[in-house]
Amino acid sequence: MENYVLSTETTADVSREYLESRKIASIPFHYSLGNKEYVDDFGESLTIHDFYEAMRQGEMTRTSQIPNGEYDAYFRSFLEKGLDVIHVCLSSGLSGTYNGACMVAESLREEFSDRKIFIVDSLCASSGIGLLVEQMANQRDSGCSIEELNEYALKTRYLVELWFFSGDLTYFIRGGRISKTAGTLGNMLHIEPLMSVGADGKLKVRKKIRGKKKTMTTSLEMVQKYGDADQKTIFISNSDCLEDAKILANLLEEAYPGVKIHHFDIGTTVGSHTGPGTVAFFFMGRDRREIESEFNN
Fold first, then answer.
1. What CA–CA distance (Å, rounded) separates 52 from 275?
2. Domain interval for residue 231
3. Fewer CB in a 10 Å sphere around the end CB: N or C, the chain?
4. Closest alpha carbon to 79 in 45, 47, 113, 54
């Protein structure tokens, strides 16, 4: 077995048990709800339902990226054991945490000159990061060296498709992801924008759809258009709206018999920006750089 650690952050929005089952380490983000500070710890300090319920009641949230000191202690815990590290970050298009991790890694490379540290900008968010590290864990288990895994990650990150929709745009407006005018009008007309993460790792509004049923069928169409023909694994995450996630899952299972669908919660860091009522789905597919050019034409 290779003498290195595959690592990510709690913004990967999979469960702790899932990461542990795939031997993937993780470091948490931090967030505040009202006047209280929390660790994004897979809903252990505050349940995911209670977090979203507090948002529904008007509590304000704020997130902060992982401090450099915490990155240093985290990476050091592996390096001191003689282990190399490959760490997968939340998209640089959504957070500055990648830059922070790179700064810390550069400093540690000088101190641990006989060790290797690779920092990967996932250009993904939420369970899209989870799907990327799932693919990387498969490669690691097949015998990839850390250098080979880094090269694999830099190519494969563009093949992870990330799509979102929400029935309540209030939190996207608050976070600046959607303009106030567009978001307010969308809420009034029950328009659910279908969004994706582009090749630059930033959130993009792709379609504006009226009505939940149409949103669901259009979501399926996006998987059929941009996904691999033989879908084996799809991740679906939701922010306290599991029933909506199940409706989408049923459509996908009908279209792709035998597909393995994993359900996860949108965690507290990403959820601070999406709010309750968001469904996200993630699958392997076409290169996002090619898809971006289609949307831009």
1. 7
2. 160-295
3. C
4. 113
